[in-house]
Amino acid sequence: MFAGDVPLDVAKSWERHKFVNDPRWRVGCARREEIARRWVDGLAHGGLTRQEAILLIADKDVPAQNSAPEVCWVDVLPTRENRNQWRRSHNGGPICVAA
Question: Using one digit for the tens of pLDDT, what is the confidence trace for 14-66?
């Protein structure tokens, strides 16, 4: 298989190399190579369930010092009209909109 003019395994290796060698990406995370491999494989081959994809996006994008990212449905988030009126506990819990 090819990605453009490059064999797929070479292209995947290059993409993993870009992630792992970026000094700003996942600083202090011991799993950088594993996350980069999973991300590139997921993009190249697909086949992830919705939950696997969401967890992979969180692994890739959430800073390493954040220990508990939370996924919620879009309809739970405040609308543009009340975006400055919502509150949430610093340790999680439901989103409350002040009326």
Answer: 999 998 999 888 888 888 999 999 999 999 999 999 889 988 988 888 877 77
Residue 2, strand partner residues: 7
- Give the residue among 73, 47, 71 at the shortest CA–CA distance from 59: 71
Q: How many CB atoms lie within 10 A of CB 40?
A: 19
Strand (E) or helix (H) holding 87: strand 86-87
Model pTM score: 0.67
Alpha carbon distance 55, 38 (integer Å): 11
d(C-alpha 56, C-alpha 46), whole Å: 12
